[in-house]
Amino acid sequence: MFGCLVAGRLVQTDAVQLSPDKFVFNLSDYENVNHVVVFMLGTVPFPAGMGGAVYFSFPDPASGGPVWQLLGFITNDKPSAIFKISGLKAGEGGAHPFGIMTSSASPSVAQVGVSVEALEQLAQQIPVSSASVSTVDTFLQFTQKMLDSLYNFASSFAVSQAQMLPNPTETFIPSSCILKWYENFQRRMAQNPNFWKN
Predict the structure, then answer these.
(1) What are the pLDDT digits (tens) for 68-107?
(2) What is the DSSP letter of 157?
(3) What is the pTM of this model?
(4) Which of 80, 129, 131, 196 could, after both became Cys, cross-link 71 (CB 3.0–4.6 A)?
(5) 24 contacts 53 by C-beta, under 8 angstroms
(6) Helix (H, G, I), strand (E, B) or coil at 95
(7) Cα dihedral 150, 152, 157, 162 sign
(8) What's the CA gap between 149 and 129, in Å, rounded?
(9) The sheet that has 22-28: what strands, in order across it?
(10) CA 89 – CA 76 distance, rounded (Å)
(11) Residue 149 and residue 196: Cα distance in Å, rounded?
């Protein structure tokens, strides 16, 4: 019913079903994980009026017991979500529906839990603020990295005018044109990070 994805690892679809409405994924070496994606596989939808609260649990350094934190939720209308777990703080757990569970044998294994709950109940729950992923900053960072990559890639094909061979099937664009456009884009982003929405 659910899948869990971490960058650089195989997709996990082997959630342990603790009860008819509680599922848990084991996440080894969680200290080196920044984000987790939880998604529905598309094979079994949530029952009408239901969704899934997504929790993250890691061993508390002081007590060794699990600390559960609410990350957010998924629904039939929003079947996937990405959560930032690198900023979660130990010892700041809250109420959770998984009952008393023994912590895993290894201190570097965390768990991602999905609890099937009513949509009204999900709407009233408040996730840990550090788990949400900032879309504006992420978009800005992605755009800048993408444009840097484009410029570097295009520049790798640069030749001087003396090196150019006539080729009627090619159109040449001066690299200074792309650089000027990129500098203008950066200036506009610095002045108004939301200009691209207009």
Answers:
(1) 889 999 999 999 999 888 877 665 666 677 765 544 545 6
(2) T
(3) 0.63
(4) 131
(5) no
(6) coil
(7) positive
(8) 32
(9) 16-19, 22-28, 109-118, 50-59, 66-74
(10) 30
(11) 19
